[in-house]
Amino acid sequence: MRIGELSERTNTSRRLLRYYEEQQLIVSTRSANGYREYDERLADRVMQIRGLLDAGLPTRIIKQILPCLDKPRTIHFSDATPEMIATLTLERDRMTERINCLIRNRDAVADYLEAVSGTGDPEVVVARAGSGTGDPEVVIARAGTGAATA
Amino acid sequence: MRIGELSERTNTSRRLLRYYEEQQLIVSTRSANGYREYDERLADRVMQIRGLLDAGLPTRIIKQILPCLDKPRTIHFSDATPEMIATLTLERDRMTERINCLIRNRDAVADYLEAVSGTGDPEVVVARAGSGTGDPEVVIARAGTGAATA
DNA sequence: TGAAACCCTCACATATATGTGAGGGTCAAC
DNA sequence: GTTGACCCTCACATATATGTGAGGGTTTCA
Fold this sequence. Notes:
The first copy, chain A, is mostly helical. The first copy, chain A, contains five helices and four strands; from the N terminus they run ααββαααββ.
């Protein structure tokens, strides 16, 4: 697909798609006329990038994280230098901190909303945690706690 | 306490503390000589601000979220205009999205690390979720999944 | 009295992710 | 063959969070 389609599918400006490529977060081939040609799978990747950027990670870090997400992981094992491992470990922990911070504050906001408006549409929040050696882990779901929605 | 102490306690440059004040995220009184004087509690607040900034929230939004965190919440009920509620609801949901995105990616990174280095120090991750009408909710904790730490 | 360690304001500089637009090709349809 | 919708590169602009430093007070302590 070309840049216009990817742009629409991911709701991301063409300018940004070119920027992500410049930052080596995505790749493209060029067709004869010089137009960028994108793989289907890139749509997902772009969404991932946007999410991470929105969560405060700089492109420099995202670039290092993205390979961890590829399906046939075996290919990337070779890149696993000690420095890379160290970086990823650090970033993993920073992400966990961010998560905890966001959860704390999100919950505070949610509490406030429920307190102030009776029922701030009690939402189902699902969070997959863990990710050990493969076993599917705990899933938590919070349902409304008594106060019925209008 | 004065700005120097707050700066050290929160590991935040004086420049940034003044900036946060300018953005109305924190307040200070002035002593006779014009020096800023800070309340003890501000140290926590500054940490909170830094966490949220790091998680991608702009000061404009943080300013609206912070009042939700104050203990005697009753005081702030008056500010609860419909627009404010709408903003907070939106931001709560955006935070949840961020959380889910971060969890997904953090777990992917963690998986990668465990796969590549045997045991990437299996960490305990605690996440308080929910936050309903007061009842303490589910707590998930992931322990090492077999592979013992060195 | 002078040096050191604080504090103040103001202004300019930087990095990062983005927007906008100029100047110019390609291609399909009419 | 011209028009409209694409695409390209390049460059400049903007917002936000930060750093840096100048120019200048205050307090403390020798």
